[in-house]
Amino acid sequence: MRSLPVRVSRSEELLPRDSQLAWRIAEVAADPVEVTQEVADMIVNRVIDNAAVAAASLSRRPVVSARSQALAHPPSSGGAGATVFGETRDRRVSPEWAAWANGVAVRELDFHDTFLAAEYSHPGDNIPPIVAVAQHTGRDGAALLRGIATGYEIQIDLVRAISLHAHKIDHVAHLGPSAAAGIGTLLGLDPETIFQAVGQALHTTTATRQSRKGEISSWKAHAPAFAGKMAVEAVDRAMRGETSPTPIYEGEDGVIAWLLDGPDASYDVALPERGEPKRAILDSYTKEHSAEYQAQALIDLARRLHREHPEVADPSRVASILISTSHHTHNVIGSGAGDPQKYDPTASRETLDHSIPYIFTVALQDGEWHHVRSYAPERAGRPDTVDLWHKVRTAEDPEWTRRYHSTDPAELAFGGGVVITLTDGTVIADELAVADAHPLGARPFGREQYVWKFRTLADGVLAPAEIERFLDTAQRLPELSAAELAGLTITGDLSSVPLPKGLF
């Protein structure tokens, strides 16, 4: 890896291209390095993971809405079009709209992969736009692998170095550039074209974090899909010769100067050297539970406490529950956010999956976490749950914050410690650093677990034969021909799902 110093530059300095972050991203994307076997295997896992959570969300309103919009846009003249999750494989739409619909389906349940560092991210959001362009343009599985490896690499490298949330900018501002870079790799574009696409994709995908604050709406699922759609359109414009704001990151009126750390800011962004394999996907991890990633370990801890101390599920026996955790967990999904909605039993699902007080309470009482049952309005409104829920508070612990940002994989942690004080004065304390499914957890996810997740979430949604067909196709991804790439989708029975009406 080679570190690039990134700082704000005055217009009269005429910052050279090779000193601009967008150009270095373009050079990495244009480097035709082969994908290692280990990375290829993990890409297959994440394609399966995305399809699993998409299957479980096919009939949910935001997904149906996005799908209905996509179906109103048939394939454009430049290619064969792309498939849409839920529809038959011969039903094609324009690739930017496939990226939109499939991106919403993947993101809706907050249930796919994650990478946390200076910023946080769901790098699997790169997959829908890159697959859509691959299908539309007739690329094969090997080209798709290279494109996805780039998307993951660029997003994770940006997430390691540049915090967006510290300035209330939504994390998808790292996704627009990474998806554009991944599409550039897929298509074998030159650095100049990718450079312009990266700049446009960043410029059009910077937005505030209000989509993940307070009363969280269905836009939370749409935001990364929008970034993927913008990336496809940015690549299209760049291929036609259109240019972008330059320098997009370093300009005196650019992203860093006015949206991030300001005119005196500097960052060091490490990116692969020429010829160096793109391996960042191996540092990311998926979810066993449908909730914000920082809730994963705490769900597992709550399940353990449910088994070992069943009395803690009874609010009449509990005086207080204190969760000590990292700054980020406390302030984003904990009581440190100051959002009363995190304690509201009538709050939206999107709000509840960003409320660790709610999530911990339900997992503590039920000994499980389910992507539907655990969020049901009748479950959230149960009186004994509301009573216990309002006894849960979070607090930042400097040690958990340090471990959250550690660069040592053995120390990196996204969990916390819990102290439950009972009404009789008994104190029950426990902690868990990483989720069971984490690579360093009690039950790390491998291919078997990704397949299990797909089968579990697709059960009752897809026909048994369709489940087996998809799994066979996905696990042959590196060898798929261009014609076979259309099989990287799932078809369900949507006959009873009405489509909403809009402009299109």
Automatic annotation (TrEMBL):
Question: Boundaries of each MmgE/PrpD N-terminal domain copy?
Answer: 20-266
- Name of this chain's protein: 2-methylcitrate dehydratase
TM annotation in the entry: none
MmgE/PrpD C-terminal domain spans which residues?
289-475
Output the InterPro entries linked to this UniProt entry: MmgE/PrpD_sf, MmgE/PrpD_sf_1, MmgE/PrpD_sf_2, MmgE_PrpD, MmgE_PrpD_C, MmgE_PrpD_N
The record's comment on protein family reads: Belongs to the PrpD family.
**Record Gene3D superfamilies:** 2-methylcitrate dehydratase PrpD
Name its species. Answer: Naasia aerilata
